[in-house]
Design a protein that fits this description.
Order of helices and strands: HHHEHEHEH
Number of helices: 6
Radius of gyration: 19 Å
Distance between the termini: 47 Å
Largest sheet: 3 strands, mixed
């Protein structure tokens, strides 16, 4: 049981609620009715290893992505970072047009990974969220898929919906999809 969840829950709240079989949408009937209506797969245990394995298998076998292992949390060849703070850090040379042609990711058009990250300051500072003291830190793994000019938002949103509803068994009525359309006059 627990308190009220917001109208637009975060992805973490959706996954947590789905694992418990609880709807993240407001309900007059309460959590019991939501649990009774939950898909059978919502009752399945989803430890981190299973979430990761399902994610990797979906994108490597069904969407032709290449698995790229996590780079070290302390970057070996990027003097601009003290720690990896985002899943895209290991792909910076691709985005900046500086990738060595002999790199193992040279020529990769689609990648899937999980990147170990630490956020401790700067633009991506999560310390205010977890507290500034001697025992809180923000170490986490960020799972992601990457397209290097091969597919765009439409496919990414469709595949995200597909994996969440068909592989993880989360009911579609519990999900909200958003995206940044951009501004045409800014390019």
């Amino acid at each position: 049981g627990g308190g009220k969840l917001p109208l637009r829950p975060s992805a973490a709240q959706i996954l947590k609620a789905a694992r418990r079989g609880v709807s993240t949408a407001p309900s007059m009937a309460g959590e019991k009715a939501a649990a009774d209506a939950a898909p059978a797969s919502a009752a399945t245990e989803w430890p981190a290893a299973k979430v990761r394995e399902t994610f990797f298998n979906y994108f490597t076998s069904k969407k032709e992505h290449k698995f790229v292992a996590s780079s070290p949390v302390v970057p070996l060849d990027d003097p601009t970072l003290l720690f990896c703070n985002a899943g895209m850090n290991q792909f910076k040379p691709v985005f900046l047009g500086q990738l060595d042609p002999s790199s193992p990711i040279a020529g990769v058009k689609r990648a899937v990974n999980t990147q170990k990250c630490i956020r401790a300051g700067g633009k991506h500072n999560d310390l205010d969220d977890v507290g500034k003291d001697t025992y809180h830190h923000t170490f986490f793994e960020m799972m992601g898929t990457w397209s290097f000019g091969d597919y765009f938002k439409e496919d990414a949103i469709g595949w995200a919906f597909d994996i969440l509803t068909k592989e993880y068994g989360i009911s579609a009525d519990r999900l909200y999809a958003t995206y940044c359309e951009g501004d045409a006059h800014l390019g």
